[in-house]
Amino acid sequence: MRHLSLSTRLALLFAACTAVVSLFAGVLFDRASEAHFIELDQQQLEAKLIGLRRALQDLQPAQREARLADELSRQADLSLRITSGDGQHWYDSSVQIPKSLPPQTGLSTISHDGTDYRVLRAPLYPDTADSPQLTLLLDITHHQHFLARMQHLIWLTVGLSALATALLGAWAARSGLRPLRRISAVARGISAQSLNARLPEEKMPPELAEMAHSFNAMLARLDDSFQRLSAFSADIAHELRTPLSNLLTHTQVTLTRPRALEDYREALHSNLEELQWMAQLVNDMLYLAKADHGLLMPKREPLELADEADMLLEFFAPLAEDARVNLSREGAARIEGDRGMLRRALSNLLDNALRFTPAEGDVRLSIVEQPQAVRVCVENSGEGISAQVLPRLFDRFYRADPARQEGSSEHAGLGLAITQSIVRAHGGTIRCESGAGFTRFVIELPRT
Amino acid sequence: MKLLIVEDQAKTGQYLRQGLTEAGFNTELVADGISGQQLALSGEYALLILDVMLPGRNGWQILQAVRSAGLETPVLFLTAKDAVDDRVHGLELGADDYLVKPFAFSELLARVRSLLRRGSAIAQETSLQLADLRLDLIRRRVERSGQRIDLTAKEFALLEMLLRRQGEVLPKSLIASQVWDMNFDSDTNVIEVAIRRLRLKIDDDFPNKLIHTVRGMGYVLEERAL
User: Fold this and answer.
1) Does A281 touch chain B (CB under 8 A)?
2) Most exposed: A11, A36, A242, A413, by fewest CB within 10 Å?
3) Which of 12-41 (A) contact B at CB < 8 A?
4) How many CB atoms lie within 10 A of CB A18?
């Protein structure tokens, strides 16, 4: 059953429903007509019985037989038996009457020698205790034939209507499922180059609109990830190009003619700096790749956030003093998380904040405990970040300051992306708010 | 001190051997897992440097063989893989340290020295000294040429590390890890600033400088001829 197509399934279901309904109707009709025939037969037999009783009442026994034959001759399909009170056959109107008949009084139906009879048995003198019994037999073979034909007709109707609805159902199902085929056609056409295809949601029936919506949303997410991934690869190549070309040029120039020992040393030192920058870039990218593959699995150790923050503040103290920036922490909270990862995440934010804070400015780290989450903010004074830039801050290789070019500068622009990955690996969120004179990174980490 | 390097990439192996030999270690290099394991089991090495991916037997198998033979030789893993599972796996099997490629040679050297030092008992020194610089560990005081110098707690810890490992080039990442317990790669220039501030107090007023920058590698505390 699992492999039947949806159309076939629906067609079979329709057929089964029609068959059941028409069978039910047929059986009901069959029963009703049979009951109707029985009622007619009974009325006829009872009328005859009354007539016979009256006819036989006043007659002498010698006259009775002639009178009976006369009564019965008018109706060919009727025959009669009269038995004595103790069961002796007195009279049979026809030789075809079966030997044994139902002993009980009242109406019954029997079949004998291919002929069907409706039988009515009643005492000849209803008021006498030991009265002779009258048994009237009505040949109803033609009724039964009619009923049998009717039953055939019912079966035929059931079969034909089932077949017809199966075909109609299959057609209806196929046309009803057309939107699904449209979805599959769109899906077939999608590849890395054409992730921008979308389903026409408004043309979909309500039942499929939601699915079409989810499908489109999935495509949009894939498209977005893919765009980022392509941009990322392009960015990697772009970032590596500058240090690589520096290395190539510098090495080739150095080797073009003999030089003093000090020049070689200088060349190697310069190369070393480029290489270290590249190694850091590759390590950061591997870290991000690991995060993208869900391999960043933070430990769950109980952490006193205030202590962690103070450790970081102590680490950054020389830098802050040097830049004459006031570095402070307020608030406290306990949390479960990975000490090393969270230190790295916050250190990126603090480093970032210190870099953009003017002298005599402030960098404040605040920890606020909320019912569902712990909020950690790193806020610095100074020129705010424009609203257009905010959503791109966490993009890889994005640098808010266009004056800082790629390569050989200290920062590759992966710090905030790494911070975001770490926060996400902890099930939290990070965002940046900025206004006149301040920039604030807000991390929300779930409690427990 | 004899070190064994098992590394199948010829260039990497040669450079490592050259670097470690020039740093004063007696170094042996093999390129496959099977001979690596045989040598490692001989027990005559003070430290094993193992690549994870090796022909014949991988680094983990060698480590297992070494540990099940009852040898306590410290093991430093080098790997190009950075999966968390690998790290956990290596440490579970009894690896002592772990470096992910690409790494800086100065980092490797510093870690090799740390591992080799780990075994030897730490002398209960009460003071550390280089030239006219003296650090009193008990009273937590620093003097140079008899002149008292005030240091913050972290500056003291930094100077203590430099003094304990005088003559060694200490990479910034190692300093961040040992002094501030910050165990991650960071491109922040906190260490440069901290060293500069320490220099200001230790070296600036004296003609013979003790803290030296080794460009691109780290910092070293030593007395150099004027």
Assistant:
1) no
2) A36
3) none
4) 21
Coil, helix or strand at residue A303:
strand
Spatial contact of B95 and B77, defined as CB atoms under 8 Å apart: yes
Tell me the C-alpha distance between A396 and A418, whole Å: 9
- Give rounded-to-5 percent helix, strand, coil for chain B: 40, 20, 40
Count of C-beta atoms within a 10 Å radius of residue A281: 22
Q: Is A415 near chain B, with CB under 8 Å?
A: yes
Contact: A283, B102; criterion CB under 8 Å: yes
Q: Which residues of B touch A (CB under 8 A)?
A: 82-84, 100, 102-104, 154, 176, 180-190, 193-194, 196-197, 215-217
Q: Shortest CA distance to A348 belongs to which of A300, A258, A250, A419?
A: A419
Interface test with A, best of B87, B106, B193, B213 (most A CBs within 10 A): B193
ipTM associated with this complex = 0.79
CB-based contact (8 Å) between A164 and chain B? no
Per-residue tens of pLDDT for chain A, all 448 residues: 567 788 888 888 888 998 899 889 888 988 998 899 889 888 988 888 888 888 777 767 677 777 777 777 777 788 888 887 777 777 777 777 787 777 778 888 888 877 888 888 888 777 777 778 888 888 888 888 888 888 898 889 888 988 998 898 889 888 888 888 888 888 888 887 777 888 777 777 887 888 888 888 888 888 887 887 777 778 788 888 888 988 998 899 999 999 999 999 999 988 988 898 888 888 888 888 888 877 788 889 999 999 999 999 999 999 999 899 999 999 999 999 999 899 999 999 999 899 889 999 999 999 999 988 999 999 999 888 888 888 788 888 776 655 444 443 456 678 899 999 999 999 999 999 998 889 999 999 998 6
Residues B134 and B127: their CA atoms lie apart, in Å, by 7
Note whether A276 contacts B184, CB cutoff 8 Å.
no
Half-sphere exposure of A427 (CA within 13 A, CB side): 13
Distance CA B147, CA B133 (A): 9
Amino acid at A57: Q
CB contact under 8 A, B184 and A311: no
